[in-house]
């Protein structure tokens, strides 16, 4: 990576931390901000007064003729300035000391702003996984500030900071994970978990890089590999690398044919390359920490790594971070407005229109739905529907936006115009869209919208849960026999 790019990234990271720092102090301790503003004003006024006195003395000295000791105005001004300067200097010292105390008190909130920055940069890289995973800093800040305002209060500052870090992390997971496909949710949870632990110094970059990439570029003098069919050359190379690069694995090559058992939370894994081999004398389960156990699974049983990661996230972040949060249109509806659309990100075989229509009916909008399935030449029709909805407060649903690639730029301009001046848009207007993942979908629209993935349920439990969630409150009453 180029040094100039690294510098820009560091600068951006510092700017994000500082933005979150100002937000958390402003919301948590408005009295600090008020006092600090007053002190800065007072300091500037006092310094300005000192400067005015100095300027007056210089002016009188310049204009003085003859013996300056005979210049009564100058002598009087010097005496006044001496007294005034002493008063102002004492006041400045007191004021600056007070400002320093306030700054020290404000600094105690720094861990919350740091957590916010860590989370934002995890979210920012999600677009590399899927082009639809776009989230703006503005969207992130709204969640950040909202959590600070509504989360549980506690007069004991360490407890309050712990609550804020926990609730900000959970709120970000819930809001972002509903926009992710199921296969990416654990990836996101683990990225959040690792980013927090890296920032805290609990794990190292080299450990994380190994878990991601393995022994890339490592060339070891190939000692004679133990005679074991299951112990392949790539596994043996990785074992040698672990022993070379990480002190806790120093004796792993010598112990590789023993039975090794590790436990991460509620997940147990026994590893043996030779059936009925003897138990390891090293006791790897107590010798390694949980992340090192993940590294061991990566090396010896990579197909089991996902189970270990699930438990690792559950231990460090909590059960909610390994579960898909419940999603309902009634909850999503609270987050959208006449200028914030809702985008259904589709997968093969999914169709959100049925659930959307039931929700619109439940909300009393069944007669005010305008819908079109986009395709070639349908852009002008969609524009007319949006214009109608803006004027009379209808709900507009643009289905299959990925099929109208040539209309994406006009759509972006229309939506940006709505965002920039929502006062001209009917307050009841809502815009819904559906699209398969597409690199042509405008990034600005994705960043400004609420997004939710729509996947067909997998498994009996998920199907039953989805069916119950989509039922109207009156369903059982209407079908009671």
UniProtKB/TrEMBL annotation:
Native organism: Photinus pyralis (Common eastern firefly)
Keyword annotations from UniProtKB, A to Z: ATP-binding, Cell projection, Cilium, Coiled coil, Cytoplasm, Cytoskeleton, Dynein, Microtubule, Motor protein, Nucleotide-binding
Keyword set includes Nucleotide-binding: yes
Transmembrane segment boundaries: none
Signal peptide: none
Protein name per its UniProtKB record: Dynein heavy chain region D6 P-loop domain-containing protein
An annotated GO cellular component: microtubule
Membership in a protein family: Belongs to the dynein heavy chain family.
